[in-house]
Specification:
This protein is an alpha/beta fold. The protein contains 14 helices and 11 strands. Helix 3 packs across helix 4, helix 6 packs antiparallel against helix 7 and helix 6 packs across helix 9. The protein binds nicotinamide-adenine-dinucleotide (NAD) and zinc ion (ZN).
């Protein structure tokens, strides 16, 4: 079994890779389960994941005072109402501060369950068991939890690090092709912003990755978790370097806003956003066009879009970029590639360059 540590001093925690944990309901060779979970468990999952894996979840956690809260599926349920419903079940069940909330699902389940754990009786333990690719390489690691407000995504939340993250890469076999590809966008992001060797490895393993071969998945997901863990350990609350994880996201945010969140998946918007950010990096003289095209080729091989649909207005697009949560009072800051594997944040991109990038991609 492979383990990666997220080095956060007193809040440090392990990411354990345990094949079969959720897909078979066995913790074979995983003596750390007890240490990670404890005796009193409250599982949060959703209808889809429960439909696929409830028997296995029962097999794993039955006998630990197991109660399960099953959320409806979908981003539209990432709400305070769901958090309050979970808190209500915890209170009605007499759950004390020794309880561990176990989130089994994608990023929506992880964010809602994590936030409920952050506020229940001023904070109880949470263990993340992510079952989507995006959740395994992104949302389950790093301690950000949040729910949406009608006026904005992720507008209420807390930093609350999990006690452990348990990753079963074999759960990805049941994920839809589109959700799987969306997770791959965040993986390409990790490679582009932090590790050129990783990008080369991805390019050399496209077939195995697309086929979801277990051994390739384990290497890839561990590599991404290591990159994310290292950045989070340096900058837990996103005052500096952690912002680099938003590479492609300000452009992507504009695409999500203008397309409607239902039509485009976050990862799809980020894929397009990364190509646009790489294009801007070219215009700043940082990388050459071959690097931008290499990133686009890899995303295409993973089944992701690399240019926005026709019909976006560039003025509306620029204005939606400015409304990104990452924009500060000083104005827009963008993540660009100084070189492949080395992202930087800049306010000095030049509006003319940005206008040229928008003109090149928005027709
Ligand atoms: N906390 C963070 O740091 C962070 C980072 C990135 C994204 N997020 C949040 O994560 C959310 C997106 O997460 P997501 O992409 O995992 O979406 P999701 O949680 O909606 O899951 C996508 C779909 O896959 C289904 N699913 C989950 N596991 C499955 C499995 N093994 N087999 C088949 N289907 C499965 C879900 O039911 C859902 O329909 C967003 O709300 C986003 O804001 C949070
Ligand atoms: Zn993202």
């Amino acid at each position: 079994m492979k383990t990666i540590r997220v080095g956060l001093g007193a809040r440090a925690y392990p990411i354990h890779f345990v094949e079969g944990l959720v897909s078979e309901g066995t913790a074979r060779g995983f003596a750390e389960l007890d240490a990670a979970i404890g005796d009193s468990v409250f599982v949060v999952t959703n209808e889809t994941v429960s439909g696929l894996y409830s028997v296995n979840i029962q097999a794993l956690f039955g006998g630990r005072g197991l109660s399960t809260y099953v959320m409806p599926d979908g981003e539209s349920h990432k709400t305070m109402d769901q958090v309050l419903a979970i808190v209500g079940c915890l209170l009605e069940g007499g759950y004390t501060r020794d309880t561990t909330v176990v989130a089994v699902g994608g990023g929506v389940v992880g964010d809602v369950a994590g936030f409920a754990a952050a506020i229940y009786q001023r904070g109880i333990s949470v263990v993340q068991i992510p079952t989507t690719l995006l959740a395994q390489v992104d949302s389950s690691v790093g301690g950000k939890t949040a729910v949406n407000h009608p006026l904005g995504k992720n507008m209420m939340g807390a930093f609350h690090q999990p006690n452990a993250v348990l990753i079963d890469v074999t759960t990805l076999r049941t994920l839809s092709a589109r959700e799987y590809a969306a997770g791959l966008a965040e993986i390409v992001k990790h490679a582009a912003l932090a590790d050129q060797d990783y990008l080369v490895w991805l390019e050399n393993h496209v077939a195995e990755i697309v086929e979801r071969e277990t051994s390739a998945l384990s290497v890839m997901i561990a590599w991404s978790c290591r990159i994310k863990a290292e950045i989070v350990a340096e900058d837990e609350t996103e005052r500096g370097r952690r912002a680099l994880l938003n590479f492609g996201h300000t452009f992507g945010h504009a695409i999500e806003t203008l397309s409607g969140y239902e039509r485009v998946l976050h990862g799809e918007a980020v894929a397009i956003g990364m190509v646009m950010a790489a294009d801007l990096s070219c215009r700043l003289g940082m990388i050459d066009q071959q690097v931008r095209d290499r990133i686009a080729r890899l995303l295409t091989a993973f089944g992701l879009p690399v240019a926005p649909e026709k019909g976006f207005d560039s003025v509306a697009f620029r204005s939606a970029m400015g409304r990104d949560k990452k924009a500060t009072s000083e104005g827009l800051r963008l993540i660009v590639l100084e070189s492949l594997g080395n992202a930087v944040i800049t306010a000095d991109y030049g509006e003319d360059n940005l206008r040229d990038t928008l003109a090149a991609y928005l027709t």
